[in-house]
Write a structure and sequence with these properties.
alpha/beta; 6-stranded mixed β-sheet; 4-stranded antiparallel β-sheet; about 35% helix; about 25% strand; binds adenosine-5'-triphosphate; nucleotide-binding; amino-acid transport; ABC_transporter-like_ATP-bd; P-loop_NTPase; ATP-binding
Length: about 240
């Protein structure tokens, strides 16, 4: 299942520039994501985090730059081709198909990439055993945290080797956030690489092997998550002061 070279970046983003209509949003983003890591992108509202994730996922076409996944240029590919390589975007929010069962929601995830479905389902239920008893229930009746589990599980059912998570903790209480952090660590151990963008900066940086601060569409700081959490510039930009981590 895992054929990544630990000595090569899994994802290499080089001089990425993205515009909406003619308005530049990401100007020159360059970074690598190494296999089997949890990588975080943090930054102020509107800095360009979601835009970068969507460009990697093939949902937005860059105006300049390169995106290489396992050395394959993916910046000109359609979303379906990017997914079939194992790069899967999980949008923010808790959107499920409410009238479909949890099982059917997960099957939708596997629609574009149908190999290894039983193996993927085992991984999902090992991460989120609470879904086991809800498999035949309508997804609309799940709690917010459970719906979020289904959206993440759909990404895994699509065969993600690189999971792009957009604000995964949005709207979740501290206990559920903790639950997701341990699921992320289990996922990393199972060979999935995670690129996480979001607002829950302290929580995300504490679990991040590598993290980037994005400001105005460019990367202004990078390092291990717990280290950059101590950085004065980051604290000033994101917390407005320099609190204790
Ligand atoms: N579809 C769009 N059309 C035009 N402008 C957009 C569009 N989507 C985002 N933008 C703008 O691009 C900029 C970057 O947005 P983006 O969502 O990537 O930032 P972000 O860092 O993810 O922000 P947040 O943390 O608030 O989610 C913002 O100024 C936003 O208003």
């Amino acid at each position: 299942m895992n054929n990544t070279d630990p000595d090569q970046p899994l994802l290499s983003v080089r001089h990425l520039a993205v515009s909406y209509q003619d308005t530049p949003v990401v100007s020159d983003a360059t970074f690598n994501v190494w296999p089997h890591q949890i990588v975080a992108m943090v930054g102020p509202n509107g800095a360009g985090k979601t835009t970068i994730l969507k460009a990697v996922a093939g949902l937005i076409r860059p105006v300049r730059g390169e995106i290489l996944y396992q050395n394959i240029p993916i910046h000109s590919l359609d979303v379906a081709d990017v997914v079939s390589l194992g790069v899967v975007y999980v949008p923010e929010g808790m959107k499920v198909f409410p009238d479909m069962s949890v099982r059917e929601n997960l099957e939708v995830g596997a629609y574009l990439n149908r190999a290894h479905i039983p193996e993927r389902l085992r991984l999902v239920l090992c991460l989120f055993p609470e879904l086991t008893s809800r498999m035949e229930a309508p997804a609309g009746g799940l709690s917010g945290g459970e719906k979020r589990m289904v959206t993440l599980a759909r990404g895994l059912m699509a065969g993600a080797r690189l999971l792009l998570l957009d604000d995964p903790f949005l709207g979740l209480g501290p206990k559920v956030v903790q639950r997701f952090c341990s699921a992320f660590q289990k996922l990393r151990k199972s060979g999935v690489t995670l690129l996480i963008a979001g607002q829950h900066v302290r929580r995300i940086l504490r679990v991040a092997d590598l993290a980037f601060l994005i400001e105005d569409g460019s990367i202004t700081l990078q390092g291990p998550g717990p280290d950059i959490l101590k950085n004065h510039h980051l604290r000033r930009i994101l917390f407005g002061h320099a609190p204790k981590p």
